[in-house]
From TrEMBL:
Lineage: Eukaryota, Metazoa, Chordata, Craniata, Vertebrata
Main location: mitochondrion
Gene: Hadh
Pfam families cross-referenced by the UniProt entry: 3HCDH, 3HCDH_N
Origin species: Baryphthengus martii (Rufous motmot)
Name of the featured protein: Hydroxyacyl-coenzyme A dehydrogenase, mitochondrial
InterPro entries linked to this entry: 3-OHacyl-CoA_DH, 3-OHacyl-CoA_DH_CS, 3-OHacyl-CoA_DH_NAD-bd, 3HC_DH_C, 6-PGluconate_DH-like_C_sf, 6PGD_dom2, Mito_3-hydroxyacyl-CoA_DH, NAD(P)-bd_dom_sf
Amino acid sequence: VAAASGHTVVLVDQSDEILKKSTKGIEESLKRVTKKKFADKPEAGAEFIEKTLKNLTTSTDAVAVVHSTDLVIEAIVENLEVKNELFKRLDKFAPEYVRTIFASNTSSLQITQMANSTTRQDRFGGLHFFNPVPMMKLVEVIKTPMTSQKTFESLVDFSKAVGKSPVSCKDTPGFIVNRLLVPYMMEAVRLFERGDASKEDIDVAMKLGAGYPMGPFELLDYVGLDTSKYIIDGWHSLEPNNPLFAPSPLLNKLVEEKKLGKKTGEGFYKYK
């Protein structure tokens, strides 16, 4: 999305194999976008793909790349320790670049805790994009108590420059969307666990009664049950007395059985 809007992007990952797979995925995504965007102009579509891919290069060396970077967006595994390790390493090699801003795409972890692992707390914020990113317009821009106004404005401006609609939120668990969405999904699981309604009827009720495109169980399977469990476990450890953050025995059981949703072929539902 950043490359498509004219930004020079370096995609960093742990191996060339992963990067090849990622690049292929990006090309496929661009083809889908151009089919809709340039339905009557195939030549313009091909030009758009070519131009976008020219803006995109790959690397397995994050340290080498960070020297000339204005904005670092981290989107690795949802593990605070691993994220902090990465930010700490990058911070050492980008200290003289006052302009370099660090941002995390985390959906549930505290931005402040990540910022504290660096020397640039004033140049650190959250940029939470939503899946699928090419289609979803929203970006949550998270400002910690230490994020400077200039950094915050830069993150808002970047979000607009890539064609998104930014909303602002303080560094609170789950920000806006997930703070409301995750407890809603967990409450649906509890409703089912108690035997008050079937998961199928709960999904139908929320789609037809609340106008949601997916029911809570469909959404849990789409997000990944392991991801949902990780989020609720993290929040429960922060606020153990908050009933909204109570873990679910059923969710824990499914994750233990490696039934993680769509990505494994089975979660609350089975997939072919």
